[in-house]
Specification:
By secondary structure, the protein is an alpha/beta fold. The protein is built from 15 helices and 18 strands. It starts with a strand and ends with a helix.
């Protein structure tokens, strides 16, 4: 068994500034020869080189006939480009594109899909961002409307952008108060993994926490052999899905990439298990033992009580009361020293290596994406054609996935097997992929076959000789991404010597 992964070092670690992100070179196969940009577009060149390394349509490379995605995409098909569009702005004002897929990567991939469709079909750029993402702001920041408008000039496949969510939070200070959205025009598909879920063996399901305060809704989907997910019909009914995630770390599972990025196919985020409330001695994995003082644990438990009793109802009146309590706390008790240390806050909400819940959700999503059909029924064989291109031109380190530090990595990764590409990407970030529970589980999963069983099954194709054997290299940090603070010393390929819990305690 051999699974290929291609890795390209782009000529520059930056993105073109102006949509619709034309190439700067009239490549022989480029279908819009009159439309070029002056600014060098190293992203477009990199995507093109990625497909060359994958030897797609090898006999026609560098000719007008080159159709690298023709083996995957046929005329008349519906092709979904699934980016990572989790947020519409960087919380700390840093580069937004350290957290989300850049549209220049989408445009380059879309051009090759356009070629393969030969005038007939649909290209849908679709994702379900975090529930508080402002999609209009996202469109403005990404300039995706300019891409759609460009394609609309020509006779051929239709191109559109879809927000797959069925609700969002418009209110800056009223996070729990949700507003309905039109949702996915293709409807929602419910998938019940049942005993095949990675959550099936997890104890204390009564402690589950999802995404939007109401724990009862989350628990109702995961109990007594039931493990349900609500996913987008646009994705499940597509002929081809091309996953285009961001190269970044993640506070709950270690890394985002494809596996955790599949959260974006889910239309109801509160079905997604993020952690179990409380510490391990009480059956949870919300935060590590021995880091918080008794006073801090009391404050955290008080916050949880308010979530369950004030925010879960999604009432404006109770949200006002919640804000009032916080105002009093900030003005009085917090000033007296009754607070949780800011460094320690990074380890709350399951944001540490001991989170034993969230990775299972990511594993479930990989199973759904690969083996569930358009009606939500599970099969033993893959149910859709897939490809992935990981955007690592600018990556995200440290406080990922929502507010990462930008990393000028200058890489693109691609392949047909999402797991294989994730494993290589994780290693190039400087981590040991087998230390991430979701990847270790996917390799040995006895219920589903994800196309490989060990790292040696992967063949890397790259012009950089150091990367060819990166999975066998046990010392090099390569791109040197800093993990989230809750993961320091636990996923690096060669972490500094540590005493268990020392790195976490240092965050105080």
């Amino acid at each position: 068994m051999s699974v290929e992964v291609a890795v390209v070092r782009t000529k520059g670690a930056g993105y073109p500034a102006q949509g619709p992100f034309h190439p700067s070179v009239a490549y022989p196969e480029y279908p819009f020869r009159a439309f070029l940009q002056v600014e060098p577009n190293f992203v477009y060149e990199g995507v093109r080189e990625l497909f060359r390394l994958m030897r797609l349509d090898a006999e026609n490379i560098d000719t007008e006939k080159w159709n690298p995605l023709g083996y995957l995409v046929k005329p008349g098909m519906t092709v979904v480009l699934k980016p990572n569009f989790v947020v519409s702005k960087h919380r700390l004002g840093k580069d937004l594109f350290s957290a989300i897929t850049h549209p220049a990567v989408l445009r380059a991939v879309a051009d090759f899909v356009w070629i393969a469709l030969q005038g007939r079909g649909r290209i849908l750029i679709a994702d379900a961002p975090q529930y508080d993402c402002n999609f209009q702001e996202l469109l403005e920041r990404t300039q995706l409307p300019t891409v759609v408008e460009f394609y609309a000039q020509f006779s051929g496949p239709s191109v559109s952008v879809r927000d797959l969510r069925c609700y969002w939070s418009r209110w800056k200070h009223f996070d729990s108060c949700l507003e309905s959205l039109p949702g996915d025009p293709e409807g929602n598909v419910t998938v019940n993994l049942g005993s095949k879920s990675a959550l099936h063996s997890l104890p204390h399901l009564e402690k589950l926490y999802g995404a939007v305060y109401d724990r009862n809704e989350t628990i109702a989907q995961h109990h007594d052999g039931t493990h349900k997910y609500e996913v987008a019909g646009t994705v499940m009914k597509a002929d081809v899905v091309i996953s285009i995630p961001k190269l970044k770390v993640h506070k709950k599972v270690g890394a985002t990439l494809n596996a955790k990025g599949l959260v974006g196919i889910c239309t109801n985020k509160n079905y997604l298990v993020h952690y179990r409330v409380s510490a391990g001695r009480l059956g949870g994995d919300q935060y590590p033992e021995g880091v918080f003082s008794r006073t801090e644990e009391f404050l955290i438990r008080t916050e949880r009580w308010m979530y369950d009793h004030l925010l879960a109802s999604r009432s404006h009146a109770l949200e006002y009361l919640h804000r009032a309590v916080y105002s009093v706390h900030n003005a009085t008790t917090k000033r007296l020293g009754l607070k949780v240390g800011e460094g320690k806050r990074q380890l709350d909400a399951g944001n540490w290596y001991g989170n034993d819940s969230a990775w299972r959700m990511a594993v479930d999503l990989m199973a759904i994406f690969r083996f569930a059909d358009s009606q939500g029924q599970l099969h033993a064989t893959p149910q859709r054609r897939t490809l992935t291109v990981i955007d690592g031109v600018i990556g995200g380190a440290n406080d990922g996935p929502l507010a990462p530090d930008p990393v000028a990595a200058g890489v693109l990764l691609g392949g047909e097997n999402l797991l294989a590409v994730d494993l290589v990407a994780t290693r190039l970030m400087g981590f040991d992929p087998l230390k991430l529970k979701m990847y270790a589980h996917l390799l040995k999963d006895s219920t589903f076959d994800f196309g490989l069983r060990k790292l040696d099954d992967i063949e890397i194709r790259s012009a950089n000789p150091e990367w060819l054997n990166c999975l066998r290299d046990k010392t090099s940090r390569f791109l040197g991404f800093a993990p989230h603070p809750g993961w320091i010393g636990h996923i690096e390929i060669c972490p500094q010597p540590k005493v268990e819990g020392a790195q976490l305690s240092a965050a105080a």
